[in-house]
Design goal:
By secondary structure, the chain is mainly beta. The chain is built from one helix and 25 strands. Strands 8-15-14-10-11 form a five-stranded mixed sheet, with no helix packed on it. The chain starts with a strand and ends with a strand.
């Protein structure tokens, strides 16, 4: 904004008042520092940045008044006031909620750890109003007995991490570390809102169901695809709260000869719940040589703290004999 001193006298400083009149005719004063001196017949250029987060959206008017009111003596004041139309755009975008259990996006009803590391992220597209307050997210859990328990920040179960900045990544997150001692079906409820009051999910709570089985067990290990032409992966379900510390997969011929062994580090990251390994058997033996087409057997050993895991029934026992699974290679 430019201010011209059309008089023959120097001014040692210049006071400018900025006020926003919103659609309801409410006045909002805009802070602005007194400006430097302006000599006779010279021009002062002033720049101002206006924070509109407390201004209701819609049509407003920016009122500019130079030398209010007669801060310094002058003959006329009527030409010191200007009115500029100003439109404040509202924040109409809802924030989004993202939830992971032990780093995994689960499906409704999946088995999870009895002591899961749950991360709840609230992301907003607004690049001005950072998600920085714990009141923006509320978390509750529905237990197998039907009770609904709200979780609080003060007991250490929930840890809130505010968005570092709204300009580049306006994401706040909660790290939740509960202990679920009851076996059965649970439901996680999350309510989230941004600073403007827009609710995630169009006002509907985020809900995801999950199952907890406290006893450490393992299901039968299946392969997928089966039969296969190029490679197949191992699929199984773990229960409890800890991943087995020892896993060994043995691949055998129908005569019982072990042609390949795979240990836990080769399988890739595993978690409580349903797993599909990063490792894929490509129909080669321990020397890397391709094996012939046909039927192959496999068995898997799981141990936790030196103890073998008990069997978790998923209704697939009919596909196994003496703990051995079958897969067919057909190139």
């Amino acid at each position: 904004m430019a201010v011209d001193n059309v008089s023959a006298w120097d001014l040692d400083s210049m006071l400018i008042a900025f006020t926003i009149q919103d659609a309801a005719n409410v006045l909002h004063a805009v802070p602005f520092e007194r400006q430097d001196s302006i000599r006779a017949f010279e021009r002062l250029t002033a720049d101002i940045t206006i924070d509109t987060k407390d201004i209701p959206p819609g049509a407003s008017t920016l009122i500019v008044e130079v030398n209010p009111p007669f801060d310094q003596p002058e003959q006329y004041h009527f030409n010191n006031i200007g009115y500029l139309p100003l439109h404040v755009s509202g924040d109409l975008s809802d924030p989004n909620i993202d939830v992971t259990f032990d780093g995994v996006h689960i499906l409704d009803g999946d088995i999870v750890s009895a002591s899961p590391a749950i991360v709840i992220a609230l992301k907003d597209e607004n690049t001005f109003l950072a998600l920085s307050d714990t009141s923006l997210m509320q978390v509750s859990v529905k237990y197998p007995d039907g009770s609904v328990v709200p979780f609080a920040y003060h007991d250490g179960t929930l840890i809130f991490y505010p968005a570092e900045t709204a300009a580049t990544n306006n994401t706040a997150r909660i790290e939740m570390n509960p202990d679920f001692s009851q076996d059965g079906l649970y439901e996680l409820w999350v309510n989230g809102a941004d600073v403007s009051g827009n609710s995630s999910g169009d006002g509907v709570d985020y809900r995801i169901g999950f199952e907890v089985v406290n006893k450490p067990m393992v299901s039968n290990v299946l392969t997928y695809p089966n039969p296969f032409t190029t490679q197949t992966r191992f699929v199984f379900t773990l229960t409890g709260s800890e991943v087995p510390d020892y896993i060994k997969v043995q691949i055998l011929t129908v005569s019982g000869k072990v042609i390949r062994e795979v240990l836990a580090p080769e399988l890739g990251p595993l978690h409580i719940g349903t797993n599909i390994t990063e490792f894929a058997w490509d129909g080669t033996d321990k020397f890397g040589d391709p094996v012939g087409n046909g039927l192959y057997l496999y068995r898997v050993v799981f141990r936790l703290d030196g103890q073998s895991l008990e069997h978790f029934d998923t209704g697939t026992d009919q596909y196994f004999e003496s703990g051995l699974g079958k897969m067919y290679l057909a190139r």
